[in-house]
Amino acid sequence: MDRAVTDVFTEVASQPKPLLWYGLPHGYLQLDLDPPFERVVELINQVLGLPDELRDHVEQVVRFYTGVVGMLNAQNVLGCAMGLHPDESGGFASSVLTISVFPASGVNAKLVLASMAGTAADRPDEGMRPLELPCGTGFLAEKKRRTTAPGVPPEGKGTSLQGTVWQGTVAVTGAGASDIVVLQLVTPAVDMADSYRDVLLGVAHTLSFTDPALMAAAEGASALQDSASVDAIRNDFG
Questions:
Q1: 3-state secondary structure at position 146
Q2: What pLDDT tens digit does each residue of the chain (238 aa) get?
Q3: What are the φ and ψ backbone dihedral angles of 16, each rounded to 5 degrees?
Q4: Nearest-CA neighbor of 231 among 208, 209, 202?
């Protein structure tokens, strides 16, 4: 799997949510969670112009896309990227990377995460552990779980297929004391969990509440390359 990070930082801006920047790994495509109305109309017209034998299949994909976008927006997801990488069997492994911001409802987010990190240290068997990042202190949690496959059930089957996925989560305090930032990566390629954990941690090390362009202008490109954040990216992505 190509685990190098791109040079372009993805910006997440949604007021009153804090501004976030994070490096998007190679092999990941950013999903537009707020497509312009004109683009939606254009997509519908393209679908309507397809031959009958293709239209039904494409309509299912479009409905699935709109359903996923609606679900992500309802769950405070501010950024989403789809990943596709070659696996050892000659096929491809898919994954989904999301970033969300949650208010801590009147309590100090740093205290909430400190409590969670302390609990994680006492329960290593559950795949949780404290995590020190350039942007702050948080924790890493990971688990394998059964889930229902998205989309329409296969023809002739009344229920959707189920499978096992690996789910990794990194939570850190946001720019404000009342926000918790959550990075999550999910993949059905459970045998590649070690590689995907590296990807998740690498992205977490790039997370910043300060515009990287402003940092580069203030410190110079060489200083940015030698920063601890970039060293962490190199370590995690190889």
A1: strand
A2: 544 444 455 665 555 444 688 898 888 988 888 878 888 788 788 878 888 877 777 777 677 677 777 878 887 788 889 888 888 888 888 899 999 888 777 677 777 776 666 565 565 555 678 888 888 888 899 998 887 765 555 565 666 667 889 999 999 886 666 788 899 999 999 999 999 999 999 999 999 887 777 766 666 655 545 555 444 444 333 3
A3: -85, 15
A4: 202
Residue ranges in the chain assigned as alpha helix (H): 37-48, 52-74, 109-122, 193-206, 212-219, 221-225, 228-237
CB contact at 8 A, 110 and 177: yes
Residue-level length of the chain? 238
Task: List domains and CATH numbers for the chain.
Answer: 5-32+78-237 (2.60.120.1690)
Angle at 189 between CA 83 and CA 157, to 5 degrees: 100
- C-alpha–C-alpha distance, residues 212 and 24, integer Å: 13
Question: In sequence order, what DSSP letters do the residues of 43-108 get, joined into one string?
Answer: HHHHHHTS-HHHHHHHHHHHHHHHHHHHHHHHTTEEEEEEEEEE-TTSSEEEEEEEEEEEE-TTS-
- Residues 12/81, Cβ–Cβ less than 8 Å: no
Return the bridge partners of 79, or none. Answer: 99
Locate 2 and state its tokens: 């190509």
Helix/strand/coil for 223: helix
Query: pTM of this prediction?
Result: 0.71
174: nearest Cα among 13, 45, 18: 18
For 33, other C-beta atoms within 10 Å of its C-beta total 17
Q: What secondary structure letter does DSSP report for 36?
A: -
